[in-house]
Amino acid sequence: MREKRSRQRYADDQEGTGVEWKPATRLGFLVQSGQITTIEEALSSKYPVKEYQIIDALLPDLSEEVLDINLVQRMTDSGRRVKFRVCAIVGNRDGYMGIGLGKDALVRNGIVKAVRAAKLGITHITRGCGSWECDCGETHSIPFKIEGKAGSVVITLKPAPKGIGLVTGDVPKRVLEFAGVKDVWGRTEGQTRTTFNQAFATYDALRKTSLMKTVE
Question: pLDDT (tens digit, 9 = 90+) per residue, 108-118?
Answer without folding.
Answer: 999 999 999 99
